[in-house]
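Handout, section B. The chain below has 342 residues.
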Amino acid sequence: MKAQSLLPISALFSAILLFQSCAINSTLIDTQQVTVTHEHRVELPAAMYTPGASNLPMFEKKGDVSLAVSMTNSGKNTNNDSNPEGDPTKVSGKTTHQNISKTRTYTVNAGYALTDEIGLTASFTTGKDREEYRPYIESWNLTQDVYSTEYWVGFPLTWDNWVQGSWQSNNQIQTINDYQKVSKNIVRSYKYYDGELAIGKYKKHNNLKTGMYGGLGFAKNEFKGHLTRNYHRDIYSQHDASFFKLFVLPSAAYSQGWIELGAAVKGSFLRYNLKSMENNDRQYSAEVKNIFFVEPTVFLRIGPKAFRVQVEQKWLKGLGKSPFSTNNSFTSVGVISMLSMR
């Protein structure tokens, strides 16, 4: 009986609180006409020089043949646009940026041990891609109404005595009167080719293998994107560049069973040649520059000699100021086979 008598009392108490917690008024205190502009910029930096996996056969004896196939990724794509679909109800006055620098190339490396000390190597790298992107500017014409709404809350002490308090809240209501968007398509594309030939000396002592190679190479990149030309920053156009290079490549590796771990440091002298072009009635002259690059590399190979999975991490660092932009970290994955023709 006591439990049943408590139910009506609880319901009455809740009803009293409900009726005493309500809005007294809602008053319009401010109206503003606002224009909000959002610009989304797309940057397509030119990754002009994008070397593939290093050619590191690590020979043991005359007649050894090495063949490797790898895929190399470099750079990354970022986008901090919180409204990529351009929804006009998600108003933002910020300038957002999209940076596209990711590239992918594929490499075939081959080598042959002429003698117990002398080896030959050759490699070919290629990559191709084309993507469209859309920078844009959005403008919203808005009406912003600000209301002041007062609340009071009373807690009954007796039937005719209560404690009351109030707080004030400013609420904003936003309506879109007009919305405009201006956009365009821009293309990022590249066609990259890179070939190398080298000769050098190798040596094996117990589980340690070393090599020292020197050679020459030629690379070419047809790139559409942003590049600094004649001190004008971020010129958007087609840029055709070629690279003649001389290089030395010392390496060392420790091999135990199915595992081989090694490192190398490649030093390359590049003769950089960028063709002239005309863009928006402005003529840009050809550029010819010399630059020296250092490419430290670490690699890991796992499996039997006839078929090993290999992972390589390479860094690219120019000595002095580089006349062109490029990625500086390269990750390669692939397979390598080492066979003996004797």
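Note. The chain has one helix and 18 strands. Compare this with the example in section A.
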